[in-house]
Structures are given as C-alpha cells and as structure tokens.
C-alpha cells in the first residue's frame, strides 16, 4: 500500500507563484536555459566577479551615505565634536562629511567601506582586463565586449573622480583645481568648458551639486547598463576557457550555473564583502578632518589622489613647465603644452592603444575565425610584450605621481627623481618590450625542447659502447598537447603591386600596411613541434624510454626496440579537432 504526501503549504505557494510567473513571462524557459549554462572553473575568472561584487558594495554603502551627505557649497560655521575645526568656515558638503564621520552611527565605517570598495573595484577591473588581454579573450567574437569593458574602465575612473571630489576638503579641492587647469589647456574651448563645469570662475558654487548628480545617478546608471550588456555578451558568446584535455572551440568544460556555480558565486560575494568591511573597519582612509575644508593656499608634499588617478598626476609632474605659447598675437589663445600633452595627449594615446588593440591585431592577422580557447601568453610574444610595456609606462607614471613622497622618505633630490622618471618613461617601456618578447620566445623554445626530448631527470646511464646519455622522462599526451596546440601564425603574404599587365593593383597600399603590421607582430616566432619532427626525434632518441623501464639494462632495451618518450600522437585520444597540423 502506498500513500501520497500532499505538498506543504509553503511549497504549494511557491509552486503556484512560479507557475503564475511562468505563464505570464516565460521565465521558466529562461531559468532552465541559464541553469544549464556551463562555466569553466579557474581562479582567474573570478577577477571580474570581484569587480561586480565591489560595485554592489559601492551601491549598498552609497545609498546609506546619500541619506546624510549635503551636496551644497553654501558656507557654514562648523559646530561639532571635532574641536580642531570648531567655528571654522566651510561648505555644507564638508560639514556633512564631518557629521557622517563623527555623529552618524556607522557613518565612518560606511564611508571607509565605500572608499575601499572603490579602490578594489578599479583594481579588479584593471586586473580583469589584463587577464583578458594577455590570454587573447578579446578575439572574435568578443571585440565589442572588450570595448564595453574598456568603457566600464573609463566610467570607473569617472565614478572615482566625482566621488573623491565631493567632500570639498583640501585634497579633493586641489584635484578640482588641477582638473580646471587641464580643461583650460584645451585650445579654444578650454575656458568655455571650465565656466560650464564650475558654473563660473573656479571654484564657483555649482561644481559639488553637479558632481553629486553625476556620481549617484548618471555614472552608476551607465555602469549598471554596461555591466548588464557585458554579462549578456558573456552568455551569448559562451565563456572562454584555457586549453586542455577535452576542451575545444566547440564546447565548454566546467560546472553548471545552478546549483554549483550559484553557490560558489554567492559565497564569493560574502568573501569579497567581508574583506572590504574588514579593511573599512581596521584601516583608516581619506581622513578629511586632518586636511580641513578646501583652501587654495595650503598645498604641500603628500597630496596624491587615489591610485588609479596617480598616472595622470605623474604625467603632469614629469612635463617641463616652460612650454607655453600664445597663438595669433598677444591677445590670442594660450597653448599650454605643459598641461595639454601630459594630461590629454599621453593618456589619450595610452587609452586609445588599449581600446583599439583587438581590431589592430585582427587586421594584422586577417583571422576571421571564432576563438573560445585562450592563448598562453608565451605563444603571443608581441602581444605579451606590448601589454607589459603599457603596464610599465603606467607604473612609472604612478611612481612619478609620488616623487615628493619618495624624496622626503629617502632624503633624495626631487629634481633628480623627476629626471630619472623622465628617462625611464621613454626607455622603460621599450626595454621591457624587448625583454618580455625574448622571454616569451625562450619559453617557446623550451616547450619545443620538452616536446621533442622530455623532461631532464639527471639520471646518467652508460651504453655497452661506452656512450653516456641522460635519461629523459617523456611527456604525457595531455602535457604534450598543451605545448603544441597553438596555431603557428605567420606574416601575411600579399599580391604584387602590379598585375600581369603592369597595372598597379587597387588596394595595394592597404595590403602593404597590413603586411608590415603583420611582420611586426609575427616575424619573430617559434614554430610548434609538428608530428614529423616528433617522429624524427623518436627515431634518434630510443634512450628516452629508459626512464619508464629502468630495471632493464640499456642493451636489453635497445635489443627489444623500446618505444621512445610518450608515443607519436601530439594530442589526447579524446581530442576531435581536425586541425591538419596536429593529426
């Protein structure tokens, strides 16, 4: 006899609610599709999640701060628990920041959580983009998603700058003063843009309310929209994965979204939030009460913005100051190259190169295939070296932004430090490009050596003929596949400039540009091992098999025709890709 247990009241209500929503929205189909979505399991894929969870933390803490912050530049006299500023004239924005820090319960904690979350948010975005860049995850069909991520980076800088400037303290006021100078350096339009931003002559009375609107409404709204678009592209294109056994461009090896990945992601959010909360509770950051309200007169050493804006500060500090010119007569326009070049041209060049790189590489290779397997950085020497050179320039500018702190802490001449950084800015990226490229080529040669001969064991044996050899441990099929699976991209070959009748071919200049660019990218390369090369190395390397059967003497192994290190296949047995080079 069997009995049927009626569903509990709560389960019945949940089922009815789910059925109601499914019939009216079709959400069941979407949930079923997303629940079966496979995501690869690798720690580097969590960098983007750190950025997402930091942004969620920013929104949660930002809502709290918005309830108490007063975005006004009206002057008041402070009366509060901080005695050093008692009776001092300041803006309502700064006074409300002090009230948040000392009078609102949990206000200081939320301020510091918000600030630390912003720093980690930008760090996670930069690190995530580095992972995408160095592994080639931006290739077709993900070029547009790279652009979306790049715009998110720029919006993150905007969100950080607008929020950093809101307290109206001395430090943020100096940053706004620099911003005003940068805007005014733009030829012809500079003064008009400055008046528009500040509502008149600097500092005006409108900049804090305008920055507040941008910070809590415009920039977060754009970030939310682009985050949604970014995740949509991830789902649409399926997730990239690192090369390995059973992984091809046609599949994804990993865990389903529900329940495994959802549980991991949920737990990881609380880990990120907990770390940020711990930093906010134990490490003081941006103590505006020590700086005081904004006053253009007190400027001293140690006035640095947050780390993600230090490159702009460093660029300004490295530029010589005697580079101003007046155009069109004494009453014409002043061209301030000492501000325009470091604050507009240099960042513009760096960011433009970063944004357009996927399209430049696609143009150089002429590759129109879809790529879902990631590259090993060593297998793309030019890209890896180019990325390292960009990072080198960025780090040099960051250090230059702290040249005054370096001088005071190490008792050095600030002029000498500045000149050293000026030289490094031109020499450092070039030197790191060359060094990184040579390292990548050396690692590729090492991979060839390992595939052809195996790992060195340090064991020396002697043949009956008196010859001494070192036993090599052969690579297994999976390790060998990892070291040879990449494509050997060669420089593009083009048609001659003139056809058979001597008529100049249309489009030759563009083809010639592509060929030169392709040669720059791929002229220096190391070809992966082919099956013929592996077979040839086996035919002359029977002693490599000694490592797998060491109890037999070399003479017996030779007499038995022992196989050499690892067989002749270059890919695992379960690999189904039809790449002729690896069959």
From TrEMBL:
Subcellular location(s) of the protein:
Cell membrane
Listed A to Z, the keywords are: Cell membrane, Electron transport, Heme, Iron, Membrane, Metal-binding, Respiratory chain, Translocase, Transmembrane, Transmembrane helix, Transport
| Primary residence | membrane
Q: Which domain of life is it from?
A: Bacteria
Give the Enzyme Commission number: 7.1.1.8
Biased composition regions of type Basic and acidic residues, renumbered to the chain: 535-552, 571-583
Provide the residue span(s) of the region labelled Disordered: 534-583
Q: Work out whether the entry's keyword set contains Transmembrane helix.
A: yes
Q: Which GO terms describe its molecular function?
A: metal ion binding; oxidoreductase activity; quinol-cytochrome-c reductase activity
Cofactor(s) listed = heme
This protein's GO cellular component annotations are: plasma membrane
List residues of the Cytochrome b/b6 C-terminal region profile domain. Answer: 244-442
Q: What class of enzyme is it?
A: translocase
A GO biological process held by the record: respiratory electron transport chain
Reactions accelerated catalytically: a quinol + 2 Fe(III)-[cytochrome c](out) = a quinone + 2 Fe(II)-[cytochrome c](out) + 2 H(+)(out)
Which chain regions cross the lipid bilayer? 46-70, 113-134, 146-166, 212-236, 268-289, 339-360, 381-399, 419-436
According to Swiss-Prot or TrEMBL, what is its membrane topology?
Answer: Multi-pass membrane protein
Keyword Endoplasmic reticulum found: no
Q: Which PANTHER family match?
A: CYTOCHROME B
Q: What is this protein called?
A: Cytochrome bc1 complex cytochrome b subunit
């Amino acid at each position: 006899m069997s009995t049927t247990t009626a569903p509990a009241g709560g389960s019945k209500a949940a089922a009815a609610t789910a059925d109601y929503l499914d019939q009216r929205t079709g959400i069941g189909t979407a949930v079923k599709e997303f629940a079966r979505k496979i995501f690869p399991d690798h720690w580097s894929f969590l960098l983007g999640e750190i950025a997402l969870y930091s942004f969620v933390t920013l929104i949660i803490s930002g809502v709290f701060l918005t309830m108490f912050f007063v975005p006004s530049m009206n002057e008041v006299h402070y009366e509060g628990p901080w005695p050093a500023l008692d009776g001092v004239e300041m803006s309502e924005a700064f006074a409300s920041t002090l009230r948040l820090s000392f009078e609102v319960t949990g206000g200081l904690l939320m301020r510091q959580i918000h600030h630390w979350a912003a720093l980690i948010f930008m760090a996670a975005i930069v690190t995530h983009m580095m992972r995408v860049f160095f592994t080639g995850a931006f290739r077709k069909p993900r070029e547009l998603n790279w652009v979306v991520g790049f715009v998110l980076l720029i919006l993150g800088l905007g969100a950080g700058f607008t929020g950093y400037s809101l307290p109206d303290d001395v430090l943020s006021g100096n940053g706004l003063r620099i911003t005003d100078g940068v805007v005014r350096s733009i030829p012809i339009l500079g003064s008009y843009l400055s008046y528009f931003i500040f509502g008149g002559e600097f500092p005006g009375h409108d900049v804090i309310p305008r920055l507040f609107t941008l910070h809590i409404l415009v920039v977060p709204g754009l970030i939310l929209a682009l985050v949604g678009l970014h995740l949509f592209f991830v789902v649409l294109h399926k997730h990239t994965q690192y090369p390995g056994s059973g992984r091809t461009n046609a599949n994804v090896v990993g865990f389903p979204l529900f329940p495994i990945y959802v549980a991991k992601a949920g737990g990881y959010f609380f880990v990120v939030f907990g770390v940020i909360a711990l930093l906010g509770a134990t490490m003081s950051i941006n103590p505006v009460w020590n700086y005081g309200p904004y006053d253009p007169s007190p400027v001293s050493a140690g006035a640095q913005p947050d780390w993600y804006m230090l490159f702009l500060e460093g660029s300004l500090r490295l530029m010589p100051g005697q580079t101003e010119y007046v155009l069109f007569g004494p009453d014409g326009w002043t061209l301030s190259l000492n501000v325009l070049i470091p604050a507009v041209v240099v960042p513009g060049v760096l960011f433009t190169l970063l944004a357009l790189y996927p399209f430049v590489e696609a143009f150089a290779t002429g590759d129109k295939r879809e790529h879902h397997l990631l590259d090993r950085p060593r297998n793309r020497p030019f890209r890896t070296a180019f990325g390292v050179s960009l990072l080198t320039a960025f780090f040099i500018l960051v250090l230059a932004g702290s040249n005054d702190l370096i001088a005071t802490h190490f008792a050095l001449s600030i002029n000498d430090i500045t000149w050293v950084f000026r030289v490094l800015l031109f020499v450092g990226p070039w030197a790191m490009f060359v060094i990184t490229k040579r390292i990548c080529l050396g690692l590729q040669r090492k991979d060839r050596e390992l595939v052809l001969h195996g790992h060195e064991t340090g064991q020396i044996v002697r043949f009956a003929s008196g010859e001494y050899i070192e036993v090599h441990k052969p690579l297994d099929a999976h390790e060998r596949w990892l070291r040879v699976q990449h494509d050997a991209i060669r420089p593009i070959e083009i048609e001659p400039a003139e056809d058979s009748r001597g008529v100049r071919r249309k489009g030759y200049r563009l083809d010639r540009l592509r060929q030169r660019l392709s040669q720059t990218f791929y002229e220096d390369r190391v070809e992966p091992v082919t099956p013929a090369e592996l077979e040839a190395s086996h035919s002359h390397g029977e002693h490599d098999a000694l490592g797998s059967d060491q109890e037999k003497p070399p003479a017996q192994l030779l007499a038995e025709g022992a196989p050499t290190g690892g067989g002749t296949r270059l890919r695992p047995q379960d690999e189904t890709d039809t790449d002729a080079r690896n069959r």
